[in-house]
Write a structure and sequence with these properties.
By secondary structure, the protein is mainly alpha-helical. The protein has a single domain, classed as Rossmann fold (3-Layer(aba) Sandwich), CATH 3.40.50. Helices cover 49% and strands 12% of the residues. It has a three-stranded parallel β-sheet, with helices on both faces. Strands 3-4-6 form a three-stranded mixed β-sheet. The relative contact order is 0.17.
Length: 222
């Protein structure tokens, strides 16, 4: 399993890493990509960094089919609870959600630690049919902003960090990738099955548990 660089070199470096693994006959490659809705296998979306992940996946599938017996597991997580941080980044995340998505639109989420649990199980159970040569979308919850905000305030006793709407709009205007992504959240959205994920890994954290155990507010009195 590898952590990938983010930026203009991500695709070239991701493909090069796959080539190196194939050259050295690595037995099992676990790759964390991103869920792209119900058609993740065939739909790259219009989001630049999602397209990058799709192209890296396609390189992996082609190389394995043509050149190698290397096993693979592609994990496609949705949004992360871990975007809730005690800094400005969180405020942009939550306010962009408020600005772009209707009140009743739910966003699928998961903890990065649970993504890691799936990755670990992929290695431990690589001879089974659950993970070997499979791609799977990962989600632990689907929450509206109101539900998300209510859980946060209940568990921390604080208001959910947010900023002015025009600030989030300005950030999305300056970073087109983010703006396009939130438009996609509104119009399409993630397509993972929480139920299927729970059947594979029943210990996934809900947002409440993540706040209590992993967030910057884990030591708060709630």
């Amino acid at each position: 399993m590898t952590a990938k660089p983010v930026g203009k070199n991500e695709e070239s470096q991701g493909k090069a890493l796959i080539d190196v693994f194939l050259k050295h006959s690595i037995s099992h490659f676990v790759y964390t990509s991103v869920d792209r809705g119900t058609n993740s296998d065939t739909d790259a979306t219009n989001i630049p960094h999602f397209i990058t992940e799709y192209d890296i996946e396609q390189h992996l599938f082609f190389c394995v089919a043509e050149k190698s017996n290397m096993a693979y597991t592609v994990l496609r997580p949705v949004g992360f609870y871990d975007n809730v941080t005690a800094d400005f980044f969180c405020k942009v995340f939550t306010t962009s959600w408020a600005v772009k998505l209707p009140e009743d639109k739910k966003l699928q989420l998961i903890a990065t630690s649970d993504n890691g649990e799936f990755a670990g199980q992929a290695f431990l159970k690589d001879q089974g049919d659950v993970y070997r040569n499979k791609s799977m979308s990962l989600a632990a919850a689907a929450l509206s902003l109101e539900e998300f905000q209510g859980i946060f305030e209940k568990k921390t006793g604080e208001k959910l960090p947010m900023t002015y709407g025009f600030v989030a709009k300005m950030v999305m205007g300056l970073n087109k990738d983010i703006g396009i992504m939130y438009d996609w959240f509104r119009e399409v959205g993630f397509g993972a099955s929480v139920e299927e994920c729970e059947a594979i890994h029943g210990g996934m954290k809900g947002f409440e548990e993540w706040i209590e155990t992993e967030s910057a507010w884990k030591n708060a009195r709630y």
